[in-house]
Design a protein that fits this description.
Blueprint lengths: L1 E5 L2 H19 L7 E5 L6 H12 L8 E5 L1 E3 L10 H8 L11 E2 L8 H14 L5 E4 L21 E4 L2 H7 L13 E4 L2 H6 L2 E6 L5 H9 L17 E6 L8 H12 L3
Parallel strand pairs: 1-10, 2-3, 2-6, 3-5, 6-9, 9-10
Antiparallel strand pairs: 4-8, 7-8
The structure holds 2-phosphoglycolic acid.
The site of 2-phosphoglycolic acid has 6 residues, from loops.
Length: about 260
């Protein structure tokens, strides 16, 4: 595992955006062999999307041959609903870059057939040869995508009921009214995330400090789904100092030294 710690959210967002742009360029994607990027929603990636838009505007990266798969979507919300992840992604990212709309994949939360929608999503990822780079946030309870505590660590795309802590955390987008937050979502599984060739889990702010401590210093356990990243060959935790607050000083020293020495 690589752990990148920067002073604040702006700096870690710039690092993650730079890493994504570098990965896309390194792959030299074409129409036949596009770069496949897994993407999250939420507050954490907003700075990354802003930075990627800037990089695109400055001609440092192109999304012409990039295919995206979002991690999750609420059940019951239409793409036009301001709280849907369809809306979020277009409003905060896709509308400002040169991505082909056909290359955008987001689970349909309004589907009548959840099982088929989820199976089709897994098959679509497979048809592209898998996800090259998956970016994800982390819940205060350690969830990744909407894989709440006690999710199977080998789960695939499916319907999940949200944990009360997630509903409370996300109520800030729904007028702070927990009764307005959908209680279920379609989400890629932990197995789906682990199949990506590379995974970056990003966290900012002190409210993520316990989850980051568990992710790096805890034991692999379905109580903290993010701990599964310890089993990934190319897993990166990218966080700011506030989110790293509960890490033991020797842990921080170890990872900072490794980065100074060139990784
Ligand atoms: P946040 O959500 O970025 O809004 O904190 C992260 C998550 O729930 O995965």
């Amino acid at each position: 595992m690589r752990v990148i710690i920067k002073d604040n959210a702006v700096d870690i967002s710039a690092w993650v955006a730079g890493y994504i742009a570098y990965s896309i360029k390194r792959a030299k994607p074409t129409a036949k062999k596009p770069f496949v990027l897994g993407l999250p929603t939420g507050s954490t990636p907003l700075g990354v999307y802003k930075e990627l838009i800037k990089l695109y505007q400055n001609k440092k990266v192109s999304f012409e041959h990039v295919v995206t798969f979002n991690m999750d979507e609420y059940i019951g919300l239409s793409p036009e609903d301001k709280n849907s992840y369809h809306y979020f992604m277009h409003e905060n990212f896709f509308n400002y870059i040169n991505i082909n709309p056909k290359n955008i994949h987001i689970l349909d939360g309004q589907t009548k057939d959840y099982a088929k929608e989820c199976e089709d999503y897994e098959n679509a990822i497979k048809a592209y040869g898998g996800i090259d780079l998956m970016l994800g946030g982390i819940g205060t309870d350690g969830h990744i995508a909407f894989n709440e505590p006690f999710s199977s660590l080998t789960s695939r795309t499916r319907i999940k009921t949200l944990a009360p802590s997630t509903i409370k955390d996300n109520s800030r987008f729904f007028d702070n009214d927990i009764s307005k937050v959908p209680t279920q979502a379609l989400t890629i599984g932990i197995g789906t995330i682990m199949d990506a060739k590379e995974v970056i889990i990003m966290a900012t702010g002190e409210n993520k400090a316990e989850a980051i401590h568990q992710a790096i210093e805890g034991n692999i356990n379905h109580l903290w789904p993010v701990t599964v990243l310890q089993m990934h060959r190319y897993g990166i935790i990218a966080c700011d100092k506030a989110a790293a607050k509960k890490l033991a000083p020797p842990t921080i020293d170890y990872f900072q030294n490794i980065e100074k020495m060139g990784g």
